[in-house]
Automatic annotation (TrEMBL):
Feature: compositional bias, Gly residues: 441-451
Cofactor entry: Zn(2+)
Keywords: Carboxypeptidase, Hydrolase, Metalloprotease, Protease, Signal, Zinc
Swiss-Prot/TrEMBL GO biological process terms: proteolysis
InterPro entries found in the cross-reference section: Peptidase_M14
One of the record's GO molecular function terms: zinc ion binding
Native species: uncultured Solirubrobacteraceae bacterium
Protein name, as recorded: Putative carboxypeptidase
Keyword Oxidoreductase: no
Family listed: Belongs to the peptidase M14 family.
Active site: 278 (proton donor/acceptor)
Length: 547
């Protein structure tokens, strides 16, 4: 366990073993030598639920091999259920939907246990205002077989629009019923080449252009200001997924970008701050001259780096959970209005980092789509799972765009959508369909109802009190001398709080644009060692800039 600087995680870890009733995972009891088995997980979850009044475990579905897809809900003093959770800040964790990426699942098991048993008053306070949802094993068949896809060889993380798999369907139903404000999707990656993708943690937000702009922006803010900060404060360098550095130049990599089948995008389309987290699976030999460490140590690092990111998520929910709940509720209202007023284009291509082709931009968009009964039957149960409402009018089936599911509708129902499941007729005149409540709704969930206008909790106090003094609040530049290295430095690149900073003669000049007490420096230097060997040195430093 590296020295974690975030008080929240430290408190979690200290608090957990104090209670005799708190069980340990198989991974913990073997000190990381191997991952928790399915049977161990089931016994562990039962013990957590029996030992803590804060926990409720329900089944959200079954896999092809009949393993349960479970949801663990945590709140204090007890779980509040879906209806109350829709009205308060709610975060959902999807753990290891790729079955051969088990570290996220281990981190989830540990965190849900720690939240269930913590006696730290600040954390209990967060649990009183916030619902935490875990799908601890999102692909149980894939995990059992240690493979990426599910038992039908479908990549679940391309299926969140099409909903062909029982796993993606279960998660879609959970999102519809609980309307989480934040969703973290936990993965692992193996860097194929040195230098490209070598950070301990990578992350990415919803890039699909149909996602609500404020949901998009707050997702990025959460990532940069909370997830990256927590990760780097714990000693895990973090960067954006799809952005690799090659010899100090940023190189854009293809990483799914706007693909609406990927969870982070599908969540953005459903007004959820959807974030992909990838942690590095292997040991970076450049970090030590002693060579690779033992496997258990590497596996503990894989789990710990996820936990560091999750501590940032908890801090976000504590400090900004009410903002997230407001933004996601307002996004629902905005998309209903946009769809009804046809005031925003629909994008069938492009991403926030890729200009869409002219043919992929439809402006004004259709006011709705007309389906046949055969299409409705064939789409079953997807309309309901996406919360798409439809009306029956004079023997026709009409899907109006003026509803909460507006961003999903064209991508699913229009032949121009890359992953469409029907070729419905786009409508230019919806006069008969608009303004009326649905006579018929798909599915039984509350999808399509706007939670806008529901009261949300007042802003929550921070877990970690930030000390401030007048000198911290002023906008200024702080000079930080970089640590000495052995050999001659021939290239230096420094980021402070994820922004590039100017360096001259071994001193980084960090501009403080808002009050901060600490700055996290990520230092990458190319060095010629005294023997002539060239190495890339990466270091992370947390610097206190005022008191
Ligand atoms: Zn993955």
């Amino acid at each position: 366990m590296p020295a974690l600087l975030l008080a929240v995680l430290a408190l979690l870890l200290l608090a957990a073993p104090a209670r005799a009733a708190a069980p340990t995972t198989g991974f913990e009891s073997r000190n990381g030598a191997s991952f928790t088995t399915h049977q161990e997980e089931q016994a562990f979850l039962s013990a957590v639920a029996q030992g803590s009044p804060r926990v409720r475990i329900t089944e959200a579905g079954r896999t092809k091999e009949n393993r349960p897809l479970q949801l663990v809900e945590i709140g204090a003093p007890g779980p509040v259920g879906a209806e109350a959770s829709r009205k308060r800040p709610t975060a959902m964790l999807v753990c290891s939907q790729h079955g051969n990426e088990p570290a996220g699942r281990e981190a989830c098991l540990k965190l849900l246990r720690d939240l269930a048993f913590t006696e730290d008053p600040a954390l209990v306070g967060v649990l009183e205002r916030t619902t935490f949802l875990f799908v601890p094993t999102a692909n149980p068949d894939g995990r059992a077989a240690n493979q990426r896809a599910n038992q039908d060889d479908v990549d679940i993380n391309r299926d969140h629009l099409s909903l062909d798999t029982p796993e993606a369907r279960a998660m879609a139903a959970l999102v519809r019923d609980w309307q989480p404000d934040v969703l973290l999707d936990l993965h692992e990656y193996g860097p194929s080449q040195p230098v490209i993708y070598d950070d301990a943690v990578l992350w990415l937000w919803p890039r699909n252009l149909n996602a609500d702009q404020q949901v998009h922006d707050l997702s990025i803010e959460m990532g940069r200001e909370y997830l990256v900060e927590a990760s780097e404060a714990a000693g895990y360098p973090a960067d954006e997924y799809g952005q690799a550095e090659v010899v100090d130049n940023d190189v854009a990599q293809t990483a799914g970008d706007g693909d609406e089948g990927i969870m982070r995008n599908a969540m953005g389309l459903r007004h959820v701050l959807g974030i992909l987290i990838e942690t590095r699976v292997d040991f970076d030999v450049r970090e030590s001259e002693l060579g690779p460490a033992d496997q258990a140590k590497v596996q503990r690092r894989r789990v710990d780096s996820h936990l560091a990111v999750l501590s940032g998520m908890i801090r976000f929910m504590s400090e900004r959970g009410a903002d997230a709940a407001r933004v996601t509720a307002e996004a629902t209202d905005r998309k209903i209005a946009e769809g009804a007023g046809r005031t925003a284009p629909v994008y069938f291509g492009g991403a926030d980092n890729e200009k869409p082709a002219a043919a992929d931009v439809v402006n004004p968009p259709p006011c709705g789509y007309e389906l046949t009964d055969a299409m409705v039957a064939e789409l079953e149960p997807r309309l309901g799972l996406h919360g798409i409402r439809f009306d029956r009018m004079d023997g026709r089936v009409l899907v109006p765009m003026g509803q909460a599911a507006e961003p999903v509708i064209p991508l699913l129902l229009d032949a121009r959508g890359e992953r469409h499941k029907a070729e419905a007729k786009p409508l230019d005149n919806c006069a008969t369909a608009s303004g009326r409540p649905g006579e018929d709704t798909a599915g039984g969930g509350p999808g399509g109802t706007a939670p806008g206008g529901t009261p949300v909790a007042p802003p929550a106090p921070a877990i970690t009190p930030v000390k401030s003094s007048p000198s911290c609040a002023s906008r200024r530049t702080v000079a930080v001398r970089l640590p000495r290295v052995r050999g001659k430095v021939y290239r230096t690149r420094v980021h402070a709080n994820a922004k590039r900073v100017r360096v001259r003669r071994g001193v980084a000049y960090v501009q403080l644009r808002r009050p901060r007490t600490t700055v996290i420096l990520r230092i990458a230097r190319r060095v010629v060692r005294p023997g002539g060997r060239r190495v890339l040195l990466k270091q992370s430093r947390t610097v206190r800039v005022c008191r």
